[in-house]
From TrEMBL:
Belongs to the UPF0111 family. It comes from the Archaea. InterPro entries: DUF47, PhoU-like_sf, Put_Phosphate_transp_reg. Gene3D superfamilies: Phosphate transport system protein phou homolog 2, domain 2. This is Phosphate transport regulator.
Length: 220
């Protein structure tokens, strides 16, 4: 596993794993674009980002299956296979939560949502992009600079803490606007808030696994 991203081997497996990681980050970026478009009142752009995100998520699912198939007939050590599977599963889960959040965004385009809430969601989405891109850097450093990988993984803890703060603010705003917003809209807003929190949690969980890998690989 130490050679994953250090040597950039052109095998089918490592190319697919790298592609899956890149696409997982792309879903978070598209979610941010969708929310930003919604904030600006650009429904078509928001829907376009959702459609692109859905296409990306489908490719991620296909890559996951292909990676697992490749692992079953590959020559990697069992420990390395297990490590790849864990990372792939975690990134796939993160992308699933991103898609669920984006579905809520599309539904909310058809109702009145206070602009302050869209602004808050936009700020949360920005932190999610930082979280996801930092995670990619941490994974890339696994086979290059374990100490750097550990530092980046720790940074994700701090970013996730910022998302938690946005989560609490969003929940407070949900209460603030509850009297002037219908129950169905409140439920969808709640779903969006929860799913964005789940994205951050999934990112942080993956970072925790990166830390575990860093420590285990340094152990004699």
């Amino acid at each position: 596993m130490e050679r994953w991203f250090a040597n950039r081997r052109k095998s089918k497996l490592f190319e697919m794993a790298d592609r899956q990681m890149t696409l997982a980050i792309d879903t978070v970026i598209e979610l941010q674009k969708s929310i930003t478009a919604a904030l600006k009142g650009n429904k078509q752009s928001a829907k376009s980002s959702f459609e692109k995100l859905s296409t990306i998520e489908h490719e991620i699912d296909e890559l996951r299956r292909m990676i697992f198939e490749e692992l079953t007939r590959g020559s990697l050590r069992s420990k390395d296979r297990e490590d790849i599977m864990h990372l792939v599963k975690r990134l796939d889960q993160m992308a699933d939560h991103v898609k669920d959040a984006s579905r809520a965004v599309v539904l909310l385009l058809e109702v009145i949502v206070p602009k302050d809430m869209w602004k808050q969601f936009s700020e949360t989405a920005k932190e999610l992009v930082v979280c996801a891109t930092t995670l990619r850097k941490a994974i890339e450093q696994l086979g290059v600079n374990p100490e750097k990988a550990m530092d980046l993984a720790k940074q994700i803890d701090q970013i996730e803490g910022k998302v938690d703060e946005h989560y609490l603010i969003s929940k407070g705003m949900l209460l603030q606007y509850s009297k002037e917003t219908d129950a169905a809209t409140i439920l969808i807003l709640k779903d969006l808030i929860e799913e964005m929190e789940h994205v951050a949690d999934a990112c942080d969980d993956t970072a925790d696994y990166v830390r575990i890998l860093t420590v285990s690989r340094e152990s004699p």
